[in-house]
Amino acid sequence: MRNLKTVKMKPAPKAAAPKPAKAKPALKSVKPHPKSNRKAVLLSKPVKHIDIKSFDARPIIRQMSDMSFTSRDLGRACEIFNTMLKDKASTSILTIAGSTSAGGCMDLYVELVKNNMVDVIVSTGASIVDMDFFEALGFKHYQAPEAVDDRELRDLYIDRIYDTYIDEESLQAVDHTIFEIAQTLEPRPYSSREFIWEMGKYLTKHAKKKNSLVQTCYEHGVPIFCPAFTDSSAGFGLVLHQVKNPGNYMSIDSVADFRELTDIKIAAGTTGLLMIGGGVPKNFTQDTVVCAEILGKNAEMHKYAIQLTVADVRDGACSSSTLKEACSWGKVDVALEQMVFAEAGSVLPLLASDAYHRGHWKKRKPKNWAKLFGKKK
């Protein structure tokens, strides 16, 4: 046993006299959040994507068709789109420019593909990579809750699209994912369609959000073309891939994009366009008629054409060039075309919901143009 020693206890000290309570300080204004908390506050309200199946736009479209100005234009655009869907011989091509995918229309595009209303997509790289693939990896876009100095956003690594925020750190994770996909591929030139097909294949195993446009198109045989593919997060990842593999890397061949989309136009015959915004996707798709002619093929002009845009027709830019103007170039027939000068996010849900509930897509057979290139899932 341990030897226990007797310990002489010291007398307890006298209790100190209590100090008078201090008056509570007056409340001060709330200090700004530290950076981490401030960023969390700004990125706290995710953008929700509209569900075109949850409401029936047919009644409002019918009434808008009897009005004037943009309302009547939209009503006629809906009639043209539904006529195109009823035409079993027609291939439906969707072109996307701008930021509607980040702004709440992403699920809308997915429903158009799932319900056989779109057979081919031509898009900016940003819509496909920075917005759709980005969310497929589990990231989100956020509503901007307040007016914030863009210099503060830069310090917090927050990117802004008008009133929508994106976490730059998450976006750089997308860049590195593109790099990882490129690292698995044979070093050779690829069309953007080929590379996006590989992105769809990647998502079948790694997607955090299953309802993405890239994966849905992969599963439904709908090819996606991004003629300016590297003008997006994909560009950063592909540059890193080339730097890490000097002289032995894959690359994107935009000429192959043009040739492949022209091959679809030649094989399809009758085609219709639903164009969101303008830019490269619009012109690239319209030009397939001329390219077919250069190849000695007799391809008819795009029979149906709708464009939703806010671009001004007076400046001569491609984004604003009217579909009647495109007829002079031999690209679009003028019988069934309609320009709708409106912000796409405000009118596209009405057009898509109207088409969904009319149900002409139920009688369309899938075109599965991916088979033209021998791709299998």
Fill in the keyword field for this structure.
single chain, 377 residues, alpha/beta, Deoxyhypusine Synthase, 6-stranded parallel β-sheet, 3-stranded antiparallel β-sheet, 15 helices, 11 strands, 45% helix
Could you please say which CATH topology of the domain at 70-140 and 188-229 and 253-373 applies here? Deoxyhypusine Synthase
Could you tell me the strand content as a percent range? 5-15%
| CATH homolog superfamily of the domain at 70-140 and 188-229 and 253-373 | Deoxyhypusine synthase
Radius of gyration: 28 Å
Proportion in helices = 40-55%
Residue runs with pLDDT of under 50 for 5 or more positions: 1-33
Can you describe what's shown?
The chain is α/β, with parallel strands linked by helices and 377 residues long. The chain has a domain of 234 residues: Deoxyhypusine Synthase (3-Layer(aba) Sandwich). The chain is 45% helix and 13% strand. The strands form 3 sheets. It has a 6-stranded parallel β-sheet, sandwiched between helices.
List the helices and strands and how they pair.
Blueprint: H1 35-42, H2 58-64, H3 69-86, E1 91-96, H4 100-114, E2 120-123, H5 125-136, E3 142-143, H6 150-155, E4 158-161, E5 164-167, H7 168-183, E6 189-190, H8 192-206, H9 213-220, E7 224-225, H10 233-244, E8 251-252, H11 254-268, E9 271-276, H12 279-286, H13 288-294, E10 302-309, H14 323-328, E11 332-341, H15 344-358
Parallel strand pairs: 1-2, 1-9, 2-7, 6-8, 9-10, 10-11
Antiparallel strand pairs: 3-5, 4-5
Helix pairs in contact: 2-3, 3-15, 4-5, 4-9, 4-15, 7-10, 8-9, 11-13
